[in-house]
Each structure stands twice: as C-alpha cells, then as structure tokens.
Specification:
Layout: E1 3-7, H1 18-27, E2 32-35, H2 44-54, E3 57-68, E4 84-91, H3 101-124, H4 131-135, H5 147-156, H6 163-171, H7 186-195, E5 199-202, H8 214-220, E6 224-228, H9 234-247, E7 250-253, H10 275-289
Parallel strand pairs: 1-2, 2-3, 5-6, 6-7
Antiparallel strand pairs: 3-4, 4-5
Helix pairs in contact: 1-2, 5-6
The chain binds adenosine monophosphate, zinc ion and fe (iii) ion (2 copies).
Adenosine monophosphate (AMP) binds next to helix 5 and helix 6.
C-alpha cells in the first residue's frame, strides 16, 4: 500500500512547497499521503491537485496544537504546570475543508501574536531579531508561523549553530523565550474534528510523554494513536501498539517529514503503513465520515 499519514509543507514548517512534497511522495513510491501542517489546511488543495497529476492520493489532514489537562490530584488543586502539550492529528473528507477557514485564520493570528512576544523576549535576552528575518521580506499570508522559523532565523543571524541549540537555549518549553499561547484543549480540539466528521489521532505520544494521558484522550474523542513515528524506538513503538489495542484505538503512523532541516521527523516514506494497518485507518476514516 505505502501510506504516510504525517507530512509538512512550507505552509507550516516543512521545507518543500505543497506540490514539491507530493512529487517527492511519488518518487518515494508512496501511494497515499496525508498532509498535516500545523494548524492550517492551506496546502491541501494544491497538494490534491498535484496528487491527481502524479498519481498520489492526498488525504486532507492537519496537526492541531493542543494540550491535555493534568489529572486532578486527589489532594489539593491541579498544578497547571503539569499540562502536557498535545499534537492532535486529524484526517477528514475534502468536502469539509471550507469549514476550517475561519478557525485557521484565528489560529494564524494567535501564532502571530505569540511570535511578537517571542521576539520581545529574545531582544531582552540579547538576541534581537527583526520580524522580517523570521517571516521573510514578503511573507506568504497563508503561512502558519512556528518556533522552527524563529530557530532558523537565530541560526542565520549567527546566534547559534543549529536549530536544536535554538530550542535548547531559548525556544523549548521551559526555556526563557518560550511563550505559552491560547490553544484548544483536547476536548475542544476533538469536538472540532468531530464536527468535520473527521478522525482524531494522538501524534507522537512518545515525544510528548503522553503515556499516562491516553485514557483521558480516548474519553476526549481520539480514535487512534500514532504508534509508528521516526522518534519512537522499537520499545516505545511496541508499548504504544499494545496500549492502543487495549484501549480500543487504532494504530497509525507517519514520517512527520519536515524536509531537509532535521528538527523533528524522518525522511518521506520512512514510515509507511501497509496491509491491515492501512486498511484499519481507511475503515475508521469512512466510519467517522458516516457518523450521524
Ligand atoms: P510550534 O508549532 O511553534 O509549537 O513548533 C513545533 C515544532 O517545532 C515541531 O513540530 C517541531 O518541528 C519543532 N520542534 C519542537 N521541539 C523541537 C526541538 N527541541 N528541537 C528542534 N525542533 C523542535
Ligand atoms: Zn513541525
Ligand atoms: Fe508534532
Ligand atoms: Fe508534525
């Protein structure tokens, strides 16, 4: 079969333009990919158009930045610092794309606000960046700006050597230029996906330390777990495969391809679903689309 359910384009923090991504998928011998940019579906139409040309099925998707509330401790109030970041992958029918127009505009605004606050913090920390250095001189208005764009600019300015260093010194969670911003929680994000008759999947649970949250996420509405991911070791993969099965969730996977610059993810098609795993995904997607 050859199905990769997690890929990024230049519309978020990937290195390949939407059409380039689909052509690369064809070269990698993939029959189908899901395009899952951070908080935006602006790449999907172009990707589907190119997919028709080169014979790759493009499934509309998105990777929603969300979070999971901490467990309420039996004694005392919940500690908000125990909130966990959640990347929620969603897959849906192309007919639903238009319904995300308003939502993604609002998300883009929230990300632009966060960018301004990150730049203020960085300036105060002695590593000032011009906004145009991050967004480019003529920013694409469709683009979803994230921390990797800031990290790239910090490297370009010579403040550090690698994007990883930029995250370790300034941008990672708990580092001095990390800025929290309003995001939907898991229930809200799953409800949005349900309103699109789509399928919600918890992305890379091993990266986000979500072992202890999967049951809550199932109750919030996820249908699957991204078991197969380049940053999951064989042991982590086996553990989440078993966890998904015992919770009645499907196992999915994808390369989380971001292109040349190695920050997260692997090469295109480095994770490819085949046979029963791919079939279970398409069945679940069809079931979600037919939900009342
Ligand atoms: P954002 O959407 O702005 O929160 O950025 C999230 C993206 O940043 C992830 O999808 C990764 O591509 C990248 N990223 C997150 N943590 C790191 C890290 N420690 N080093 C390099 N890249 C990272
Ligand atoms: Zn990313
Ligand atoms: Fe992610
Ligand atoms: Fe991703």
């Amino acid at each position: 079969m050859g199905l990769d359910l997690h890929t990024h384009t230049t519309i978020s923090d990937g290195a390949l333009e939407p059409r380039e991504l689909v052509r690369a998928a064809a070269r990698a011998g993939l029959e189908a990919i899901a395009v899952t940019d951070h908080d935006t579906v602006e790449a999907i139409e172009e990707c589907r158009d190119e997919g028709q040309r080169v014979g790759v099925r493009v499934i509309p998707g998105i990777e929603i930045s969300s979070y999971v509330h901490p467990e309420a401790a039996p004694e005392g109030p919940v500690d908000p610092s125990r909130e966990k970041n959640l990347h929620l992958l969603a897959y849906f029918d192309p007919g639903q794309l238009g319904r995300l127009r308003e939502w993604q505009l609002e998300r883009r605004r929230a990300r632009e606000d966060r960018l301004d606050r990150m730049l203020e913090r960085l300036a105060a920390l002695g590593v000032p960046l011009a906004r145009a250095q991050v967004t480019g001189p003529a920013p694409d208005p469709r683009r979803s700006i994230g921390r990797p764009h800031v990290a790239r600019a910090l490297v370009e300015r010579g403040y550090c050597e690698t994007q990883r260093q930029a995250f370790d010194r300034w941008l990672g969670q708990g580092r001095p230029a990390y800025v929290d911003y309003p995001r939907p929680d898991a229930r809200e994000a799953c409800a949005l996906v349900r309103s699109l008759r789509g399928l919600s999947v918890c992305a890379h649970p091993g990266l986000d330390d979500l072992d202890g949250s999967l049951e809550r996420l199932r109750d919030a509405g996820i249908a699957g777990v991204e078991v197969y991911h380049p940053d999951h070791s064989p042991e982590v993969t086996a553990r989440f495969r078993a966890r998904a099965e015992s919770l009645g969730l499907i196992a999915t996977g994808g390369s989380d391809y971001h292109g040349g610059q190695k920050n997260e993810g692997g090469s295109l098609g480095s994770v490819r679903l085949e046979g029963a795993v791919a079939a279970a995904f398409f069945q679940a997607l069809a079931r979600a689309a037919a939900a009342p």
